[in-house]
Amino acid sequence: MAVTRIAAVAAHFGADIGRALDKITGIVERLGHDGVDLLVLPDASLGGYIGDLRNPDPTTGPEAIDSDGPEIRLLCRIAGAMTICVGYAELADGVRYNAAVCLTGDGVLGRHRKVHQPAGEHLAYAAGTQFSAFDTPVGRLGMLIDYDKTFPESARTLSLDGARTIAALSAWPASVTDRASRMPNDRQALLFDLYDQARAAENQIVLASSNQTGITGNLRFLGQAKIVGPGGDILAKTWSKGGLAVADIDIDAEVDRARRVLRHLEERRVDAYHNLTIDKSGHR
Question: I need a labelling partner for 249 at 20 to 30 A (CA). Which of 62, 101, 256, 281 fits?
Answer without folding.
Answer: 101
